[in-house]
Amino acid sequence: MEKKFNEVWENCLKVIKDNISYQSYKTWFIPIKPLKLKDKVLTIQVPSQFFYEWMEEHFINLLRKTVKKELGTEGRLEYCIIMDNTAGDDGPLTTTIPTSNKPTVSNDPVPIPIELSRESNAREIPNPFIIPGLRKLKINSQLNDNYSFDNFVEGDCNRLARSAGFAIAQKPGQTAFNPMLIYSHTGLGKTHLAHAIGLEVKMNFPEKTVLFVSTDQFFNQFVDAVKNNSQNDFIHFYQMIDVLIIDDIHNLAGREKTQDVFFHIFNSLHQKKSQIVITSDKPPVEMKGIEPRIMSRFKWGLSADLQVPDLETRIAIIHKRLHNDGVKMPQEVVDYLAFSINTNVRELEGALISIIAHSSLNKKPITMDLARQIIDKFVKSTSREISIDYIQKVVCDFFNLPVDSIQSKTRKREIVQARQLSMYFSKKHTKASLASIGLHCGHKDHSTVLHACRTVNNLIETDKQFRVFVEEIDKKIKY
User: Which domain holds residue 445?
Assistant: First the structure.
C-alpha cells in the first residue's frame, strides 16, 4: 500500500527536527505544506521564491536524505512555490520546481538588501540613498559557526552580557542595547559572545546583512581605500550593514583618521537603527587614545563585562566541550583541570584539547598522571595557588562526602573529621588567616581552627592509619 503524502512528510519532519535547532525548524519547516505524492515524488509548497532558494542552499542534503529514507532510493522532492499574482485573477499563482543537485553551502554570503519593495513595472523614482554598484554586492559575514549561543556556557560571570546579547539577536537595533560594548580580560569569551549574537541574528533574520570584523582588519581596509582613493566607497559599504560587530575596538587608539571614519559610520548606522556590537579588552574608563566623541557614543547603549568564571562554570565549560567532542573523562581529572586553570577560559580549553589529543594519539586512557603532565605546561606547579575551596573538595572526595557538608552544623564524626582536616591543610598550604579559614569551614572562629590543627597533629602522631590518610590527601592536594 502506497504511503500518504501527509504521513511521509510528518515522518520527514521528525527526523529533521532532531538534526537542526528548534528556531531553524520553526522558521523554515513549519510554514511548509505537503501537497501530493506521485511516482515516488513528494511535492511540498513553500511561501516564496526566496524561501525555496534558502532551503536549497542550506537544507537540501538533509531534505534529500530524509525523503529517500521514507520513499527509498528513487524518492525525489519537488517544490510548489507561491508567486505574486499580477494578472488580476483570484488566488495566488504557483510554479513547480524539482529540487536541484547543488551541495549545501554553510554561512553563504548574503546579498545586501538595498531594495526590498516589489513594485509594479512602473518607472521607479531614483533613490539618492542607494549607492550605485552595491545592488548585487555580496559579503561573507566572517562568523565562526562554532561560537554559537548553544556552545556558550552561562554562569554568574557572564549572565548579564549573555542575556543582553540574546535580546539583541531577537530584535537587532530595536532594543536599548545599541551599541553593546562587551569588555573583559583576554580569553573570557567576549569574541565568542559577539559571534553568537551575529549567528543568532542570521538565523532569525536571514535577509539582514551581518558583518564581523576586527579593528585591525577595519584599519587595513581603510588604509587600502586611502591608497586607492576610494574612501567614499569604503564608508558607503559599511553604512549598508544591518548588524556590525567590531572586535577589539581598543586597537583604534592613536589612529585618528580611522577614528574619524568610524565616527561617521557609527552615526549613520545608529541613526538608521542598525545594530552595533563592540568588544574590548579594557573597560571604557581605561581606554586611552580614543576620541571623547566616540567614547560618549559607547555610553549610549550597554557596557557589559565578562568576569572570571567560578569553579562551577569552569566545570560546566569542560563538560560542554567533552559532550560536543563525544569524549569521556574521569570526574577527578575534570575537577583537577578546573581547579588548576582558573583565570582564562581559552587556556582551560587549550589544556583540555591537549589532554584529549595526547590520550588519542598515544592510545592511552585519560588519567590524573596524564592530566598533571599536560597541565604543568600551562601552569607551573610551584606557583599554582592552592585555594581553601580546592582543599575542601579534595578532602570531601577522599571521604565520599558532599562539599557542602563541611558548612553544616552536624556533629557526625566523619564530617567533623573532614572539617578539621580541611582547616589543617588550609593552614598548611594557604596564606589565609585563621579567621578566614574558619569562615570558609562552617563559619567557625580562629580558636576552633587552632583546636582542629592541634587535634590533627595529635592523631598523626598516635594513629598510624590516620597518618596514612593525611599523607594521601596531602599528595592529592599538592599534585
Answer: 388-478
